[in-house]
Amino acid sequence: MNKVRESSVLYIAPLQEELDTAPLPPSSESFRDMPKAVCKQCKKSFPLQILTNHIKTCSDVVVVEDENQDEINNTTELSCLDNEVNDTEFSYMDNDWKTHPDPKMAADLYRKEIFRLHETGKPLLMCMDLRSGVEEQERQLINFYKQRHVEWACPVKCQLQGDAAVGDGVTRHFFFTVLEKLKYGFSLNLGNTGVTCLFEGEPDHLVPSSSQFLIESDLFLVAGRMLGHSFLHGGPCFAGLSRAFVHVLLQGSEDTATLQLEDCPDVDIRETIDLLSGHSPLNEDQSSKVLELCLSWDLPGPTEGNRRWLYERLLSHAVLGKRTRQIKQIRRGLKETFVWNLLNERKDVAFFPKESEDSCTPEMLLSHISWHRGDDEDDDDDDDEYSPDIKERITGYLKQFIETDVCWDTKTQ
Question: In this structure, what are the phi and psi dihedrals at residue 116, rounded to the nearest 5 degrees?
């Protein structure tokens, strides 16, 4: 005969006082190290464990059921699975940035609003080991921006391992390095190219590389995150992009983009397209080159009647048509870093300045100076007037002067 097990209830009876079963307040020490998020209605920070219950009781909150609501990023607020910007967040922003007459001030106001909405988020830690090689440092940067489910508008902390520097100068160094690599290329050998350049072409005519390897590796999504993250934290902007490319990137129509022949980074293709710009009849060799290019892009061959139209179609495809996926990835990265709303509303903000409009920064000068090193062989010279310690101190003073005391309002020439 089987015995039936009966469930039992265990009661805890305090000897001297009643047990406190009231919910812990949000300020309790028990929640100190737990991830938090800001309630979009009352603007107060709550641990994620009690945020759902708070939303149900917070006044004037409309609770929207979402099948994806269970997925919560431990370092961020609730986010959509596709990492797109949640438009409802911007409904709680101060809109002074939309109407301010000065574009630069509008951008600063926008930054402050974004930071206010994310000030309680978990800080992002950016580390770079200066004792490692250049390629390893670049790999650290790329891996940082390849992370998924990151709230890029949260506070950022930068550390240079192997260097005693601290403070804002370290942050500026990080973002200057990021933008410099993005613009001039990474030393990492990605796709058997030696130097990996995400952008190619002449100054003020730069466009994303057409490398399929870079596209498939989502490196233009990384580029968009780098651009937006640098802008949010007061870092340098990306100067020198093609105006036509910027126009389309910011959702302008390809038909209204003002293209220039210099926007085409491939010199051979540029020369072939340029054959159609004149009025002289094409010889057999020229006609053959143009026809070959037209057929490769599913366009009709050249005739006297379609010459100008064909010139514009070929140039548009060479500059914009081959970069549709790159545009989508960069745009997505800008949305993830919360700067897309600004770019969409304020077309006058110089997010992508021309080379001539790019401000000179301390990092630009510092990166072109060959600094004294304590392990130089010349340090053993008995006739040297200054000791290595004095040289090091002088170098430190000069760095500090360049970073803090020099006026950087002038433009590069």
Answer: -65, -40
Residue 3 DSSP one-character state: P
Superfamily of domain 115-254+327-357: Hect, E3 ligase catalytic domains (3.90.1750.10)
| Nearest Cα residue to 155 out of 75, 222, 252, 100 | 75
Q: Nearest Cα to 186, choosing from 246, 228, 140, 241?
A: 140
406/171: higher pLDDT: 171
238-287 pLDDT per residue, tens:
999 999 999 999 999 999 999 999 999 999 999 999 999 988 999 999 99
- Residue 104 to residue 350: CA distance in whole angstroms: 8
Beta strands at 45-47 and 124-129: parallel, antiparallel or unpaired = unpaired
Question: What distance in Å separates the CA atoms of residue 158 and residue 319, rounded to the nearest whole number?
Answer: 37
Nearest to 182 by CA among 200, 202, 198, 205: 198
The domains of the chain are located at 29-84, 115-254+327-357, 260-319, 362-404
Give the per-residue pLDDT at 391: 75
Whole-number Å distance between alpha carbons of 397 and 395: 5
